[in-house]
């Protein structure tokens, strides 16, 4: 069955290509090359390395990133003759393929893993777009990897930070961080105050999300701390009938936190690098004035529902 | 209590500007040790989760396509296209993109757009081109590009939870199941709608304010 194995084979090939070019092209960039080679190894052989093996691979990635030797992008050579609006066609092929494939592949559950239909379709779209570019623009066979590597150098180590945070979440869960935060939160809420409990729940979701970079890690913690014991069964007295709004609005309060933290690297730091912003926190600064009123809205909405 | 030391490590690491990759590993080590786990178990837990979440990093396969198209002038074409349209402002363009992103995310089509796929090659240069005309050439490029990225995030976050089978909905269902509460994804996803509307109104209003800011720039420059 075609699923993530296909996506990972392509992704591994892309990073292996980036690594090779970083060694072959001048100026040689060995730190970038080793970083990409490690990611390629993870995509290709991650399932065969074992848990400890993958842990060692992560430590190697961290060593390269922390060495400070990875260098950012470089100007590419002379621009070839610019082309017209036809350039939009390959660019739009990728979203179009993701859209069409998501719908179509669900009809082929024996051939394509239905859970991964969108990612598989996106990968097919990327391959089709590369083939179109090569046939039409004739930039040379290595051009996609060269140009991709130029953009990848801009992103740098921030590329794997989201994966790192997901893994940190796993260690937190195993260590019982959630239970401890829950006990502390219970002390902090003035007893009997529904608004206090709702506010602590919403703010707690946002704050914990900011620390972990991910609302998924915050939700089980805050559900155990306030959501279930206080809002569902306690002061709120909302009862089980209110479980859906408590969960859904709490998660959205967490998303407001995602807008305000550098730990959510793929949403906040990577775009700043991709758009070549001078201020690394430029995207976060642009989001805070939306995130804060929206967080207040979520807290008031949940209060209104439970009151 | 000691296991909270890992959270302190993250906060301190960021304040002192250590490399975030390093901060995350140290935080995992400190947390695990405080909980009495042995270092090999911590390493294995971390490694397994890293391997299981590789799909997050698969999106970078779009960069080769975007890179080649940009070499042949994709960003310039995007700017020229907007330059020729009358009445298109950076704010209105981004409001349109916000709506598009929210609607598609609500249908579960989250990977159709994104920072590498659509913001860098298309949306940001288009918004920049429109803003340049509005502000009469006065540079506001940084702020406009940051707003383009912010619009993508807001649209994604406050659209995707309306879809039934998105990760966060399934996570909530799973967590509540642990407390003996059975919910259908539909019951959760309808509660994402009020916040989706509020996000559109709040962020949309800020985008229209951006247009007024740009116009004021032009006046003060003239």
UniProtKB/TrEMBL annotation, chain A:
Any matching Pfam family: DUF979
Identification of the protein by name: Uncharacterized membrane protein
Originating organism: Sphingomonas palmae
The UniProt record lists the keyword Transmembrane: yes
Domain of life where this protein originates: Bacteria
Zinc found in the keyword field: no
Chain ranges passing through the membrane: 6-23, 52-72, 84-105, 117-137, 157-178, 184-208, 215-232, 244-265, 286-306
Keyword terms, alphabetized: Membrane, Transmembrane, Transmembrane helix
Automatic annotation (TrEMBL), chain B:
Spans traversing the lipid bilayer: 55-74, 188-209
Alphabetical UniProt keywords: Membrane, Transmembrane, Transmembrane helix
Short name of any one Pfam family annotated for the protein: DUF969
Top-level taxon of the source organism: Bacteria
InterPro entries according to UniProt: DUF969 (IPR010374)
Listed name of the protein: Uncharacterized membrane protein
The species this protein was found in: Sphingomonas palmae
